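Researcher: Structure for this, please.
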Amino acid sequence: MNLRRRFALVLVVFSLLLTLGGGFLAYRLTSRALEEELDEKLVWVAGAAAEVGLDGEMLLNLRPGDEVFLLWQSNHNRLLQLRRYVEEAYIFRRGGEGGEALVTSRPASEIPIGTFLRFLAAYPAELDLAWEDGEATTRLFRGEGGQSYKYGFKRLGESDAMIAVLMRADFLEPLSRLQRSLLLGALLGALAAAFLAYLLAAGVVQPLERLSRAALRIQRGRWETPVTEERGDEVGRLSRAMERMRQGILVRDEQLRLMLAQVAHEIRNPLGGLELFATAAMESDSPEERRRLLMRVRAEVEALNGIINDFLSFARPVDPDIRLHDLREPVEEAAELMQLELMGNGGGLHLDLPETPLMGRADPDHAKRAVLNLLKNASAVANRVWVRAWWSNGEVVVSVRDDGPGVPEALKDRIFEPFVTDKEQGAGLGLAIVKRVLETNGARIALMDPEDSGNGTGPEAGDPAGTPQRGPGDVPFGSGAEFRIYFPGSEDLPGDDRNGG
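Model: Predicted structure, token format:
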């Protein structure tokens, strides 16, 4: 079933449920209210008759054949007057099936005194209630011609005599007209809903069909055609999302092409060295020379393995095990790994961590790896590196700064893109891997502008609160590149004592 038909079906069903449900409820409430009103009318008429001139104790003295006496005739005339408001009226005594007639609105020849009113035997519960409580009404029933009626009973004082009146339920005819009107309204509502569904479906389906064709083009690799932006509602957002997806695929495809070219280029150099050293080792008769050449082969294999690991890390990042922990530990471990290397090259690493824990959310191994990669990049171009960490706006900030030449101006906007580097060797994946690893942990990385990083002698923008002014004899921060990692902190904000560096 296509979307147009689904729209029509849903709206038609909804319209029918709404109109029929509402109509049924209105019909039931109206019918109940009118029936209750009829019950009140029945009891009122029977009660009015009982209160005006009907003496139950006296009427109980009537015996068969007394129809010629004034007592029977006067009460018979009263019941005839009630027929202006009711269909029939009966006065009867308790006994027999239904009751034993005393006076009725019928002629004496039809219902003489003592006749058992067997038609009242169908309402034993109502009669028992009337004898006990003094009044009751029956449920609706169908009479001759399909007309609906109800009986109302009123006990005459404390006697064993009771009056029953029969009244036609005239309210059912208007209810029937109301029912027909509701059904007609439901039908018209369904037709209107079907027409509205067609209009709505056309407004939704046509843009979706265009988006479907655009998705099919993307599936078939025809990425050069942009996705047309639709209107400004949810469909429009979907079209813009598909356009971003298309652009992302183009970028991914370009990155894949670059990666393949870079892989070929990066692997070709170690392979060439492997071939050269292996050939020389085969031709050499000196064990020492052969050993030296094989060590070079091993070094080239390790370099080749490192290149492959970098590409695998970029192509298939490992899912993080994010948990709340003290981020000082992975930062300190990464700094210890690089400190000896920097000192061996005549440089140094300055680590500045607060005494209080820096609780943040990240994978400890990923956090250590990200800081270690930044330290490796810094050690390749600088002699001295500064590592600091502090709280800022609910985040744990880790700063890595060096005294190298900094990032070239032309590369600052693209420094975190893959295969972007100013080095002659290397795939240019280090910072791209760091960025991707941090993003999987909900963290972020930024290259600080020199203006934001300060001049190396005073407190910098974004530094921990309370950073003191440095004097001439203090160790300055490096004036090279500064990268800052922002890890999400715990939901409990740190106290003021944690804001210090």
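Researcher: Any notable elements?
Model: The two ends are 64 Å apart (CA to CA). The chain has three domains: 3-173, 234-315, 323-498.
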